[in-house]
Design brief:
The protein is an alpha+beta fold. The protein contains seven helices and 14 strands. Helix 2 crosses helix 5 and helix 3 packs across helix 5. It is globular and about 60 Å long. The chain binds 2-oxoglutaric acid and fe (ii) ion.
């Protein structure tokens, strides 16, 4: 049995309450900063996303994955990442995943300064960021749009709070105008056979961007993160669901931005349960073609940043290839 980790449960209410006093807000900001340093993961409660909207998203996700394989596959024509993909038992992947996804990826054309599709490295991946995925189902689409807007607002707010704790005085970051948003609805099927107990739902990875907001089912524990034990060794720990919370985790871009003060933690899903599981991950990321700098307030006077500035879009494209082991298996088309 994998032991669980006690991640901090942070109450965001003072940040949303106009009457909250400055000390209460400062206390919340400090808890967030500490969690970003120690784990790169925390629970957020009273986050301001309406419960009805969360419920509507979960209902849409459940209904979607309950559809027949023939219906779901209608959503598969959108490319490598976008739309519906069933990774369960696909021999061409390097691990035996048990996982279905509906990924709603924002169109690249949405970005004022987005690099043109067809340009260099992105050519092979043009379908990743093609025209806006049509979602024929109006209820699904409306719910997703409302949820996306609410999470983007929370993302901006959270990043401003974090920037403040890192010492920033300016919050209108050029690279964060037009943030790139992806929503991944994840479905992990029931594991029937005991000897499949260690099969991987979603293999170990870090998220690529800035902040991920994860809504996970509360009836089962399957998410795991890598933490350091007292000896500094990495060890896997389960993340128990906390009803009413969103899990916030930091993506790779937060590391150079904070000059290495924050961590982007490895996580995975192991789902050996006789019940299925849903989760909804919403990614609040930089503009696709943005070079994410190091926040100048994090650099000691006279010192250079510890990391070279990285282009978010290039990082995403590289990671997609690695994640699905596409480069290692050239005949694979996901
Ligand atoms: O299903 C989960 O709990 C994790 C999902 C996740 O890590 C992701 O979609 O990036
Ligand atoms: Fe993730």
């Amino acid at each position: 049995m994998t032991a669980s980790v006690s991640l901090p449960i942070i109450d965001f209410q003072p940040m949303l309450d106009a009457d909250a006093d400055a000390a209460a807000r400062k206390a919340v900001a400090q808890q967030i900063d500490a969690a970003c340093r120690q784990y790169g993961f925390f629970y957020l409660v009273h986050h301001g996303i309406p419960a009805e909207l969360q419920e509507a998203m979960r209902k849409q996700a459940t209904q979607f994955f309950n559809r027949s394989p023939e219906e779901k596959v209608q959503y598969s024509k959108y490319g490598t990442v976008r739309g519906y993909h069933n990774y369960t038992n696909q021999a061409k992947l390097d691990e035996n995943l048990q996982h279905e996804v509906l990924a709603i990826v924002q169109p690249l054309g949405h970005h004022r300064n987005g690099r043109p599709i067809g340009d260099d490295a992105s050519t092979a991946n043009a379908d990743v960021f093609g025209p806006l995925m049509e979602i024929a189902d109006r209820a699904l689409r409306t719910t997703i749009e409302q949820y996306r807007a609410a999470i983007m607002q929370l993302g901006r707010h959270m990043l401003a709070v974090i920037a403040g704790e890192l010492g920033a005085t300016e919050f209108d970051f050029e690279w964060l105008r037009d943030p790139f948003c992806t929503i991944r609805m994840n479905y992990y099927p029931t594991c029937e056979a005991v000897d499949r107990a260690h099969e991987v739902g979603l293999k170990a990875h870090t998220d690529v961007g800035m902040l991920t907001f994860l809504d996970q089912d509360t009836h089962v524990t399957s998410l795991q993160i890598q933490v350091e034990d007292a000896n500094g060794d990495s060890t896997w720990r389960t993340v128990e669901p906390v009803p009413g919370s969103l899990i916030v985790n930091l993506g790779d871009m937060m590391v150079p931005w904070s000059n290495g003060q924050y961590r982007s933690a490895m996580h995975r899903v192991i789902h050996p349960h006789k019940t299925n599981r849903h989760s909804i991950a919403t990614f609040f990321d930089p503009r696709f073609d943005a070079m994410v700098p190091t926040l100048k307030e994090t650099m000691p006077a006279g010192e250079a940043p510890r990391y070279p500035p990285g282009c978010y879009g290039d990082t995403v494209l590289g990671k997609i290839k690695d994640f699905y082991a596409l480069s290692a298996k050239p005949d694979a088309t996901v």
